[in-house]
Predict the structure.
Amino acid sequence: MWAAGAVVANKLSECKSVRVLLLEAGGAQNATYNDIPGMMKYIYKDNVNIWKYWNEPHDNYGQGYAGGRVPDHKGKTLGGSTAHNGMYFNRGNARGYDEWVNTYGAVGWSYKDLLPVFKEWENNTDRSVVESNPGYHGTTGPIQVSAPKNPDKIIDVFHNVVNQLGYRDTDVNGPIQTGYQLLQLYINGQGFRSGTGNAFVDPNPHEDNLHIVCKALVSRILFNVSWPNVVLFHSGYNGTVKTSLNLVKIKSRGTIRLQSTNPLVPPLLDPNWLSTPDDNQNIMDATRFSCPVCRYRYLYECTEGLMCYIRYNTLSSYHPVGSCRMDSIDRPDVVVDPQLRVKYAKNLRVCDASIFPVLPNANTGAAAITVGHKCAQFIKDYYDLH
């Protein structure tokens, strides 16, 4: 199960006329590693509730890693990667979602269509943010978001520098996103992580008709007309300050391939980053922009040296999408239609970030939660569930 799976299970089990089986390959969330925000980096170190995936080596990136293999680990627990991600609450730019519709034919997935869904699951506890853009935020949903409390003093220094460069304070989830904001995080009122696992299925809100089975690895899907109509398988450190650059509007396209029919053998992941001139130029420009006072130092003037640095240090931000692209069903390069139904298959839908036609200019958590809401509603409408 990924982030969206918990949402689908919760929303469908609201209908007392159905029974829902939620399968999770991993276990329940770990109270120390998954609930406490500051423990995120130890999850990878101690292999707690994660799928350990490594990208295939490539000359364009990851040269600083052993064998050139960049990690791309994923959550293996209730709530998927929302149980161990960076917790940043950013939906992405409206035009990114509109591109899903206008370029890829994903009718019903424009930002105007999705904004009510975003607001439905959001519980924003920062009054100043909500009051500044009341039409863009929800305050009653199960996922709580709030600004970090007592941030380090260096944040104020950085804030002043950004303002002096001409960038005003803003709300990155509001109508004007260019500017500065200390990003809100998925953290509840008790200071614990707020993910889809503990917000939607743990504890189980509908024990009579929602059955949760952990440590259950799905090896294959059996298609049989005698089965139920709906079967869902969701299968700055060390005292330093650093600036991380995240290239989210990319043109490079990668692949994910099976290397075995054994579900225990990880797939071959080749993101193929920095394989287009535009991506290389954009990451170069972003690197130079990140340090205005460095602009006239030798490294920043030397294009070859800076590109060497980029290829040595570039790594995953853990937000791959698009391997089961959603699109107009008549396109030959799609897997699911705008209702998330798998092409040429009956009674099977895909519900996670793999259906994104393109990355929505942001971390994928918010969009994945919204996909879960949409998928549940599609199923309810199709089977007239109440």
